[in-house]
Amino acid sequence: MSDKATGECLCGDYHYEFPREAVISGHHCHCKDCQKMTGSGKATILMVPTELLQTRGELKTFTVTGTDGNHVTRGFCPNCGSQ
């Protein structure tokens, strides 16, 4: 298994990479906003130090007021729309 986690959007315009050991914590959020965003019962959220996250490509963002009243900002590829 690689020591780096990698991924990309559906069209391949946006890529990310980070060392697996850099993950500070991982959570599953079950709020209504995350359920709508994923189309499932939860969203998986990983916390990684910004300086260890490498990205390539452009992201657009959209901010909404979450069900608990906080602002939630989600990033997505401006070409294919995947998060």
What percentage of residues falls in helices of 4 or more residues? under 10%
Give the neighbour order of strands across the main sheet.
1-2-5
Give the SSE string. EEEHEEEE
Largest sheet descriptor: 3 strands, antiparallel
Total count of helical runs of at least 4 residues:
1
In whole angstroms, how far apart are the ends? 25 Å
Radius of gyration: 14 Å
Structural class: mainly beta
Large-scale geometry:
globular
Percent of sequence in beta strands: 35-45%
Low-confidence region ranges:
none
* Beta strand count: 7
> What is the typical, i.e. mean, pLDDT?
92
How does this structure look, described?
The chain has 1 helix and 7 strands. The protein is mainly β. A hairpin with a 5-residue loop joins β6 (60-65) and β7. The longest helix is centred in the middle third of the chain and has 7 residues, at 32-38. It is globular. The model has no long low-confidence stretch (mean pLDDT 92).
Layout of secondary structure:
Layout: E1 4-8, E2 15-19, E3 25-29, H1 32-38, E4 43-47, E5 54-56, E6 60-65, E7 71-76
Antiparallel strand pairs: 1-2, 2-5, 3-4, 6-7
